[in-house]
């Protein structure tokens, strides 16, 4: 076939205007703009994208390995390291043994979370693991300099050069605390001096996970990570470190959430903007390619309820990270929110990455996301929004100043509160938690002990809903039965059945035994329900007369159930409350308010020994 011969030449290429006209025709009277999606990042996502959306993008035609490295730093493959996170307590010997086992079963490296750096047995570590061929990294809360010196001494005693180390040192007081003390900058300078001759070991780490783990938007995660990295660079170069040494040793730890395409665009935008930062420092462009990105599946989206769903979450999260070109990846075990992971959950987590590589071949194509009109446009949008926010932080004096004046945390809090509101109203779905619960789920831990545990993550998306579910579980264990909710549907209108279905799913997610009962009229419903054993009675009816009649009559129930209407009566709310209704449930209502009301009733029942 010659260049002039083209398949399907009889078809006219569709333009953006053609697509818009066709979509509007199919929508009839509905405005095309109604299909737009407005995100937490302040980005409006259109229902479709065309070639015209990317034709003016400067990076659209760039190749992998080319500055500014949006498509990755290599033109050969899309390989990544499968890093298993291992908690090291005390002398760390059991953790080191576990690491040796993991490295023999598919892990490419390990990341030790070192509880006590001084107690950690580095001699045992260097004796059991080959640190020059395997990637071994360390998260330290203190004493990184002393830890490295002990490690180097142990290596020297075995005639092994520290220059061949692989991995990174995760010590990041900047993004964790918002500022660096003089002692901390001195410590990081010493770490940099110790690691700068090890080309495959990174000593300056910035944890974007400190922002994503508390509900930040992706724009905020990228902008604040960049800003913290610039703050490190400025402080370290001011302390006398060469710029080249700082940039070569920079590593970003980033979370990978459930917003699949956005997460792909996030890492691509991050590399693009880091190249802009290196360019602003007038550094050699090749130094921007030295940036290493370590991704970890999101802790913010992990759930305690129906935890096996976490296996599915981390799979899509891991896919987005590797498609975006992460250099290394940690997949969190599905049960990490409520217990110490075991051999089974760790093996499943490790195998997620292995399957993506060995069976899905995601390492074979460089920048698999390239060419998508949507992803290319989204990368540009996300990069632009993050860059504007980055400049706003810099205008306030940089990361430390913006953190100290409250701008960074308050802006993240604003977004996270909106996310919590969306979870409470059902607009944002957490499968198995606020939608599609597992009615047969058996909770095999002590809910009361878990909630009071210091390490139980209360910043996660699912936490408010989980607390309510835990209260229901405690009721079950004390009373030997689940609290019961009856949804009484009075009449036949389709709208009533929609409201009833919503209410049924809502109370099922709260852990209640839930039943829908159909009645033709109020009298029949009241006669049956006055003696029914239920903590909650939900009324699904749209007639005002029925609504006014039901409340006063069912309120004569000796057990005094919480009475809820499955509707949004708007101007009738005050009147219906006066007629005996406690709350109203409907799509987009604040479910947390209803759960709090119901759980308080359960608590009173427990305190009264089961009596009202």
UniProtKB/TrEMBL annotation:
It comes from the Bacteria. Its cofactor is adenosylcob(III)alamin. Residues 121-447 form the Methylmalonyl-CoA mutase alpha/beta chain catalytic domain. Keywords: Cobalamin, Cobalt, Isomerase. Coiled coil: none annotated. Belongs to the methylmalonyl-CoA mutase family. This is Methylmalonyl-CoA mutase small subunit. It comes from Pontibacter amylolyticus.
């Amino acid at each position: 076939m010659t260049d002039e011969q083209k398949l399907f030449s009889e078809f006219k290429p569709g333009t953006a205007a053609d697509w818009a006209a066709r979509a509007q025709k199919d929508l009839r009277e509905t405005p095309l703009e109604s299909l737009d999606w407005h995100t937490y990042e302040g980005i409006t996502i259109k229902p479709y994208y065309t070639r015209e959306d990317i034709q003016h993008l400067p990076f659209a035609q760039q190749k992998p390995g080319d500055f500014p490295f949006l498509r990755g730093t290599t033109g050969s493959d899309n390989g990544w390291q499968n890093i298993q996170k291992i908690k090291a307590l005390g002398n760390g010997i059991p953790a080191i043994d576990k690491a040796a086992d993991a490295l023999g079963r598919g892990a490419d490296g390990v990341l030790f979370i070192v509880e006590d750096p001084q107690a950690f047995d580095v001699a045992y570590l260097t004796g059991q693991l080959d640190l020059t061929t395997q990637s071994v990294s360390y998260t330290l809360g203190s004493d990184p300099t002393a830890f490295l010196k002990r490690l180097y001494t142990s290596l020297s005693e075995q005639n092994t050069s520290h220059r061949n180390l692989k991995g990174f040192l995760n010590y990041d007081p900047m993004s964790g605390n918002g500022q660096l003390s003089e002692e901390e900058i001195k410590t990081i300078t010493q770490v940099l001096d110790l690691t700068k001759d090890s080309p495959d070991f990174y000593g300056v780490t910035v944890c974007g996970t400190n922002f994503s783990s508390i509900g930040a938007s992706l724009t905020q995660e990228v902008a604040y990570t960049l800003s913290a990295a610039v703050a490190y660079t400025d402080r370290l170069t001011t302390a006398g470190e060469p710029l080249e040494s700082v940039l070569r040793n920079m590593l970003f730890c980033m979370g990978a959430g459930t917003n699949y395409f956005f997460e792909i665009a996030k890492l691509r935008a991050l590399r693009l903007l880091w190249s802009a930062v290196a360019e602003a420092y007038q550094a050699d462009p090749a130094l921007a390619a030295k940036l290493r990105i370590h991704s970890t599946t999101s802790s913010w989206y992990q759930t305690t309820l129906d935890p096996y769903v976490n296996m599915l979450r981390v799979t899509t999260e891991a896919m987005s990270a590797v498609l975006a070109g992460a250099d290394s990846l940690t997949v969190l075990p599905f049960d990490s929110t409520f217990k110490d992971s075991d051999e089974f959950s760790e093996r499943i987590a490790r195998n997620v990455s292995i399957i993506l590589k060995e069976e899905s071949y995601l390492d074979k194509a460089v920048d698999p996301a390239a060419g998508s009109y949507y992803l290319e446009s989204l990368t540009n949008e996300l990069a632009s929004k993050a860059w504007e926010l980055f400049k706003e932080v810099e205008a306030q004096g940089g990361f430390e100043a913006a953190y100290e004046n409250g701008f960074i945390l308050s802006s993240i809090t604003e977004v996270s509160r909106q996310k919590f509101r969306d979870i409470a109203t059902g607009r944002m779905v957490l499968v198995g938690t606020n939608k599609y619960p597992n009615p047969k789920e058996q909770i095999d831990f002590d809910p009361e002990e878990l909630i009071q545990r210091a390490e139980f993550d209360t910043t996660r998306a699912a936490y408010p809903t989980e607390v309510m579910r835990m209260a229901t579980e405690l009721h079950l264990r004390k009373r030997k039965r689940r609290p019961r909710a009856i949804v009484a549907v009075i009449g036949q209108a389709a709208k009533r059945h929609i409201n009833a279905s919503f209410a049924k799913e809502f109370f099922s997610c709260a852990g209640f035994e839930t039943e829908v009962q159909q009645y033709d009229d109020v009298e029949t419903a009241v006669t049956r329900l006055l003696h029914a054993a239920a903590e909650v009675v939900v009324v699904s009816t749209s007639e005002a007369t029925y609504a006014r009649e039901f409340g006063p009559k069912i309120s004569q129930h000796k057990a005094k159930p919480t009475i809820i209407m499955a509707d949004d009566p708007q101007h009738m709310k005050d009147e219906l409350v006066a007629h005996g209704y406690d709350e109203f449930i409907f799509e987009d209502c604040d479910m947390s308010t209803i759960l709090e009301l119901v759980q308080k009733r359960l608590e009173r029942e427990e305190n009264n020994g089961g009596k009202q």
